[in-house]
Amino acid sequence: MAAKKKKGSLKPRTVHDFKRVIDVGPRGIKTLRENVLIPPKYRSRLVSVLISPEAIRRRVREMAKQLYRAYRDDLYMVITLKGAFVFFSDLLREIYALGGSADFNFVSAKSYIGEVTSGHLKITLDIAADLRGRNVIIVEDIVDTGFTLIHLIHHLKKKGARSVKICSLINKPDRRRLDVQVDYLGFNIPDLFVIGYGMDFDEFGRGFPFIAVMKNID
Ligand code: IMP
Ligand code: MG
What we know:
- There is one protein chain.
- The chain is α/β, with parallel strands linked by helices and 218 residues long.
- It is 22% helix and 33% strand.
- The protein contains four helices and 13 strands.
- It has helices spanning 40-43, 53-71, 85-97, 147-158; strands spanning 16-17, 21-25, 28-32, 36-37, 46-51, 75-80, 102-112, 120-125, 135-143, 163-171, 184-188, 194-195, 211-214.
- The strands form four sheets. A six-stranded mixed beta sheet has the order 8-7-6-9-10-11.
- Strand 7 and strand 8 form a beta hairpin.
- The termini are far apart.
- It binds inosinic acid (IMP) and magnesium ion (MG).
- Residues 83, 111, 140-148, 193-195, 199 line the site of inosinic acid.
């Protein structure tokens, strides 16, 4: 016999939060009245939710369509770890839902910036596959100063890639120091430090299904 449910046992462990949600889509910024689930223990560390799970889903689906139209089955993606892995896994499934397919590989790299130079790129996980003649798309979580991408584009071209294009979920144009164009873009955001949907601050926030602005970042 099924155990009798205790009154109140279905109470959700997370509650609806009514913090401001801003949808920074390609058509500009608009404030939405959307509810986003934020586990209570994280709330005190967040200023606001910037992009809701639903807004991310809509945009990722549109980006998948753009990529599928442009590349069909000739997609070769290079994903930057760890930040871009959540974005990539959603993007990949949207591409397959359209009937497309993609080959992919992961890199892990960090740029070190000098005072007068654009520094260098330290690659801790590289691609063993042959890139000669391939049209490569780098999948990034966020483009900030542009240093990482400038170096990574150069690195992939040296490995023989025929072309290298950029697909990034987030772009912070106000922070740019090097000229990097984002070919496939999710959202332009102001100069804010964001976490969630793969992005972190000292590993905090990577698993959030939304993108949020963190408190006391300095
Ligand atoms: P860039 O070389 O300055 O363009 O830095 C790019 C990398 O820095 C991104 O791929 C992120 O990993 C990290 N980053 C830059 N801004 C943010 C942010 O607001 N939140 C989390 N990570 C960030
Ligand atoms: Mg990154």
